[in-house]
Each structure stands twice: as C-alpha cells, then as structure tokens.
Automatic annotation (TrEMBL):
Residues 168-409 form the Malonyl-CoA decarboxylase C-terminal domain. It comes from the Bacteria. Residues 82-165 form the Malonyl-CoA decarboxylase N-terminal domain. This is Decarboxylase. PANTHER family: MALONYL-COA DECARBOXYLASE, MITOCHONDRIAL, PTHR28641. Gene3D superfamilies: Malonyl-CoA decarboxylase, catalytic domain, Malonyl-CoA decarboxylase, oligemerization domain. It comes from Bradyrhizobium iriomotense.
Amino acid sequence: MANAFFSDLLATISERGRTLLRRGDASDTRQDADGLIELCDALLSGRGEASGTAMARDVLDHYRDLDAAGRRAFFAALVRDFGPDREKLAQTVEKWRTQPSDEDASDLHFASEPRRQELIRRLNRAPGGTGDLVAMRADLLGMMNGHTDLAALDRDVVHLLSSWFNRGFLVLRRIDWSTPANILEKIIRYEAVHEISDWDDLRRRIDPVDRRCYAFFHPALVDEPLIFVEVALTETIPGAIAPLLAVDREPVPIERARTAVFYSISNTQRGLGGISFGSFLIKQVVEELRRELPKLDTFVTLSPVPGFMPWLKQDKDLPLSDEDREVLKHLEEPKWLENAELTAQLRGVIEPLAAYYFLKARTPKGRLIDSVARFHLGNGARLERVNWLGDLSPKGLRESAGVMVNYLYRLDDIEKNHEAYANDGTVVASSAVKKLLKNEGRRLLDMRLS
C-alpha cells in the first residue's frame, strides 16, 4: 500500500510538471538521439523538483521510442559529451598538487565524477525510472558485445545500480501457491535452469511440504523478482535432477529431511548482470531454513555444467589419448544412451575430464571456464561430487553430456573457501573429485607405457 501511494504521488507530481513544461514550450522536442541529448542537457541544468521529475520521465519515454541505431547513438553521446568537466577537474588537480588537504581530496572526487552519473541519478527520480534504467542497461549490454567504446558508460551505470540494489534494499519473500498470480507467472517465465512447463509443474515445485522457493524483491520494482532459488528438502544428497522433478514422486516427510538442495537459481533482470545477489540469497535462505527446520544439516546444490560440452568441442589440449577421442565422438550419436557398454566407456572418459575441467582447465585470463562454478566457488562452496548422467534432458545432454555437480555449503568453511578461491584461485574440492583427477593421470600414464 505504501509503495502504491508513493508511486501515485510521484506520478501526479510528474504529470503536473509535464503540463507546466508543455505550456512553457509549445514546440515539439525532436524524437531522434540529438533531441534526446538536448533534453538530457536541460535536465542537468534544471533545478525544479517537479519539472525535473517530469523532464526525466520525458527523457525515458523518448529513449523508449528510439530504434537500435538511435539508442546506440545516444549511448555514444553519453560517453563522448557527458564525462567530467575537464577544465574544473584540471583546476582541482592543480589545487591538490599545490597544497593537498582532505577538503581538496573531496573536491577532487566530485570534480572527477562524469556528468552522466548525475544524469542517471536524475532519471532515476522519474516514476518507474529505476525499472527503465535497468532495461536501458540491458540494451547497453547487448550493444557492447565485446566492444570497449561503451565500457565507461557501463561502469557508471553499474556503479549506481550497485548502490541502489545493495543488500540493504532487498527483501526476501517466500514464493508459494498463495503468492499473487502475476508473480507466479514471472517465476514460470524467468526459470532459466529447468524449464517450468505449465502451472501444474510450478505447483509441484513450490506447494509440496518438501519444496521451497524464495525470491529477492526491490521496493522500486514492485512484484518483480530479481533472483529466485528453488529448494528441495531431501534425506540425502541427490545426484540427478529427474527424481526431484518427477510428476509421480512421493514427497519426503518433513521430519525425515536432513538436506536442503538448491537445484535452480535464476536471475531475472539482464540489466542487473554483474551485480551479485546470489550469495546474499543463498546465505539468507540457509538462515531461513535453519530457523524453520533445525534438523537440516546439509546445504548443497545440484548444479548444471553449461560450459562443459563447448570446452570438450573447442579445447585442443585435452588430456586425452587417441582412443579416448574416438570414444568421445560417440556423443554425437543421438542414441548413445541406449548402449550400456558405450555409456560405461564414456563415463570412464568423461568423469575424469570433468574433474580436470574444474581443477585444472582455465580461460586465457586464468579464470574457471564454467560460470556456475565461478559463482558457487566464489561464494565459498566446495566442489563435492561429479554426477554422471545427472541431467538427461535435451539441454543437459547438449550442454554437459548429462553431467551435473554438487556444491556443498558447509557453513563453518564458507569464509575460508571463499578466501582460497578469491586470493589464489584455489578450487576447494572433496577427496572423491580429486581422486577422479588422479585416476585420469594414472590412466594416461599406463596408456603411454603400454
């Protein structure tokens, strides 16, 4: 109710301000990128709250009407023409050099700030402005596509969004069958790991006694989940996703549940990419579950490995014998799963390769290849187990040859594991995973000697 009242109040102020603007300037603003830049200059030079709110709304509306070329021209102009005031910055730098002081240091900070940051702040004051800026940043990411000319603008947008979407503003809400339908529909739409086919499928994931779903919300994006996690309560650590999602499965009695399985984590806003909520989400969900169910003692994921098959196909330096390479070619056959002997041969090659993929393989910049692995290991989890044929869906077979992994969140070790990964790139793994890698080394050595 409070959010709705405040939004209505802002909309009223904005509309009155827009009416004043129309009376003051009968000429139509140009609808191209240059006209939008003129509006931005006017917004930065204005001081009135009502007129500024109205003008910010006009800027965002005009942006929405631009085509892709116009939006890119607008972004380029923000980089080119809305940086720091160079003359003012030079004077402040010289003052600092002549006689450094804390006050001068503060002046230097403010003088170095690009004008576009203040522009973005003012745009955020418009009714619905936060959501529009998140959508604008999604456009920006799509246009960057490896190019660096818009990187400065993206850094400024991320800097501000990170402040507006910090943990203090996020609200954790449990999603269940009593949640409003408009939010449930978004859960179906945004699910990015294991597709939700229909409303019955959604109900099986959030309604039974052994299922939970939680999402983070932000006050400026009413009823818009930012990220959500689906949780299965089980007796032991699972190694495959199908039994968790089976239509005819028997729910686990809550008194027998000892393990919380995070089997799907989905970010919903592309424009917030690079602004991490996931670690906060997992930690708070763990706290919620422990309060509700004190007998839970294991917190683990059942995670996909989306980078594994692309790595197998592109990496020329895989630790493989010629015989192993021939075995891997069978993955291209549509019915390889139906051949038990072939499946066993593939397992003997792929499991050690998966261990190598996590423990040894890196990008040219020295990072782990798999984005899911980077997320969980960076949050302090331990690579617990490699699960052969954990995901037999078409997507699972295409992305990882069916491989899934468990990341274990042992609460006493999270900080230590995070520091090891963040400082040294160390992947903390169980002895079972490390053994797979040792077996790979012995197997290749035996082949070379034979």
